[in-house]
Each structure stands twice: as structure tokens, then as C-alpha cells.
Design brief:
The protein has about 325 residues and is mainly α. The protein contains 4 helices and 2 strands, in the order E-E-H-H-H-H. It has a two-stranded antiparallel sheet. It is flat, with a radius of gyration of 72 Å. The termini are far apart. The N terminus is likely disordered.
């Protein structure tokens, strides 16, 4: 936000004062105006982040321009020559390189790899790593040890022999305590080891007893399982025997009922079947079905032959009679 300061020199009071005239801040223009601004009043102010003169981001890798901004003519000529060669190579490749014929109507050509070894195609841009040699860093000398400056005064006190304490007399109770504590600790460790041995022996005995009990429990469970299986098999067999007995009893009852029911039914059935011809004499049936039809056929053939012979004889007799009658008429 910008403000326009207006200075006023008050000669009457002899004090320098200033005041800013309040006004609305204009919006930032979207496009660059071709006409230059006349004065500061007509200029537009905006956010400083949109100013091209403000450098944003990392400034370590900024390109440092040389003192003379004129480009190197040799490098410029080299770049132009390389660009000219690339353009000519591209034109030669497009002109003399193999071309694909135009596709038929309704079809399009696609790029297919025809090399011996296929190449993986990806949208990733090929990168090239470039290295440069820099000067080695100089070793930094070791930082000296900080020693604070001496302050105050040195004071000394003289102590004569025997004024403080007797070392042997003072150390003896401490030594006795240390030795006693060491022996006590050793005894405690020995007792602890013995107790651990006893605990291991008890645990071993307990483990053996538990394994024996587990084995006995498994044996009893296996025995119980066998008894249960045997019991189930016996129950199954007994059920099968009972079912067979029940089925046999039902069959016997059904047979007795059928015999009792068929006692009066059989004579009537046999009589009806006999009346309808289901029971017959085989000799009579053979005579009726085999001999009598043959006999009737033979009799019919014999009678037919006799009738034919009699008819032929009658025709012969009539013919002879007619001839003799005609001969007799002619003789008269």
C-alpha cells in the first residue's frame, strides 16, 4: 500500500509537520499500458511479490553476469554452426530416409519398433550428470581448550602430623565392614546356589511326576475312548438286531395275514381263471391249437380237390354227351 505524503512548512509556528491525504488504493492493472505515467499520482501500486525486480527463491545458484554483458562472439558462432548442422541433418533424414506408405482408407499408421533389441519407451526425460572439480577445503585448526581466567586469592593452611586422623585406626573398622560384607555376600550367593539346586531337583521330580500323571491320564483317556467306541458299536449292533427282529416279525405277520386273507380268495380266483380259460389241459390245448387247424386245412384242401375233379368230370361228360348228340342228329 502506498501513500502520498504532503509536506507543509508552517512558517508561523516554525515546526515542520507532514500529513497523508487519504484516498482509495487503485487495483493493479492486468495488462501493461503503452502510455507512460505522467506523475506519481497516476501510477498504480500493488503487491510487491508481483514486482519483477524482486528476486524470489534460492539465491545460491543465481547466474552471475560478467562485467561486460556482451556475449562471446566465438561461442555465439559455435552455437550457430551446431544449430545449422542439426537443421541440415534433420532435413536430409526427412528427405532421404525411408518413408512409410500412406495408410488405406479407415486405417492409421502407428510407430512400431523394428530393431533387433526392443527399447523401453517412457515419458521420462533423459538426464545427464555433469561433475566439476572444486578446490579442497582447508583443514580448520583445532579449537583451543577454554581456560577461564584466574580470579581471587590463593590461601594455604599448614597441618601438622597427627592433627587430622590415624589412617590405620580409622581404616580398620571400614575394612572390617567391607570384609564382613564380602563374606556375607559370598555366603548368601552360596546359599542361593544351593537353593537353586534344590529348586532344580524339585522341579525335575515334579516334572517326572507330572509326565507320569499325564501318561496315566492319556492311558485312561484312551481306555475310556475304546470303551466308548465299543459301547457305541454294541449299541449299533443291538439296534440292527432289533430292527431285523422287528422286520422279521412284520414279515411273519404280513404272511399270516396274507394266508388268512387268501384262504377264501384262492378258490374263487382259481374258478374264475378256469372259467376264463387260464387253466387248460396241455394235450387238449395242443390238439385244439396245433392238430385241429391242420386237419381242417387238409380236409378243406381234399374237399376242394374232389370238387374240382367232380366239376372237370361233369364238364367232360357234358362235352361227350353234346358231341354224341350232335353226331346222332347228323345221322338222322
Amino acid at each position: 500500500m502506498a501513500t502520498t505524503l504532503k509536506a507543509q512548512n508552517e512558517t508561523q509556528s516554525g515546526v515542520y509537520t507532514f500529513s497523508s491525504r487519504p484516498r482509495a488504493v487503485p487495483n493493479r492493472t492486468k495488462y501493461r499500458t503503452s502510455v507512460a505515467l505522467i506523475n506519481e499520482e497516476e501510477s498504480s501500486y500493488g503487491n510487491i511479490m508481483y514486482d519483477r525486480r524482486v528476486v524470489r527463491g534460492n539465491t545460491y545458484a543465481q547466474q552471475i553476469l560478467p562485467v561486460t554483458s556482451q556475449p562471446d562472439p566465438i561461442e555465439f558462432l559455435r552455437q550457430q554452426e551446431a544449430r545449422r548442422r542439426a537443421i541440415s541433418r534433420k532435413r536430409l533424414k526427412e528427405q532421404f530416409g525411408p518413408k512409410t506408405p500412406e495408410p488405406l482408407e479407415g486405417r492409421t499408421n502407428i510407430d512400431v519398433q523394428t530393431e533387433v533389441y526392443l527399447e523401453e519407451l517412457s515419458d521420462r526425460i533423459e538426464e545427464v550428470s555433469v561433475e566439476c572439480q572444486t578446490d579442497m577445503f582447508l583443514d580448520k585448526p583445532a579449537t583451543p581448550l577454554f581456560i577461564p581466567a584466574k580470579s581471587g586469592r590463593d590461601v594455604a593452611t599448614q597441618i601438622e602430623e597427627g592433627e587430622l586422623f590415624d589412617f590405620d585406626v580409622e581404616v580398620q573398622p571400614v575394612l572390617e565392614v567391607l570384609v564382613g560384607k564380602t563374606i556375607e555376600q559370598a555366603l548368601l550367593e552360596v546359599m542361593e546356589e544351593e537353593e537353586l539346586d534344590n529348586l532344580r531337583a524339585q522341579w525335575q521330580a515334579f516334572t517326572e511326576i507330572r509326565n507320569a500323571e499325564l501318561a496315566e491320564v492319556q492311558r485312561l483317556e484312551e481306555r475310556e475312548r475304546r470303551l466308548r467306541v465299543e459301547k457305541e458299536n454294541r449299541i449299533r449292533q443291538q439296534k440292527a438286531v432289533l430292527e431285523k427282529e422287528k422286520e422279521t416279525a412284520e414279515k411273519i405277520a404280513a404272511r399270516a395275514f396274507a394266508q388268512q386273507y387268501l384262504t377264501d380268495l384262492l378258490p374263487s380266483v382259481y374258478s374264475n381263471l378256469k372259467e376264463y380259460g387260464y387253466f387248460y389241459d396241455p394235450v387238449r390245448r395242443d390238439i385244439e391249437t396245433g392238430f385241429l387247424p391242420w386237419l381242417m386245412t387238409e380236409v378243406s384242401n381234399t374237399l376242394e380237390q374232389r370238387n374240382v375233379a367232380s366239376t372237370v368230370l361233369d364238364m367232360l361228360i357234358q362235352d361227350i354227351t353234346n358231341r354224341r348228340s350232335e353226331a346222332f342228329q347228323l345221322q338222322k
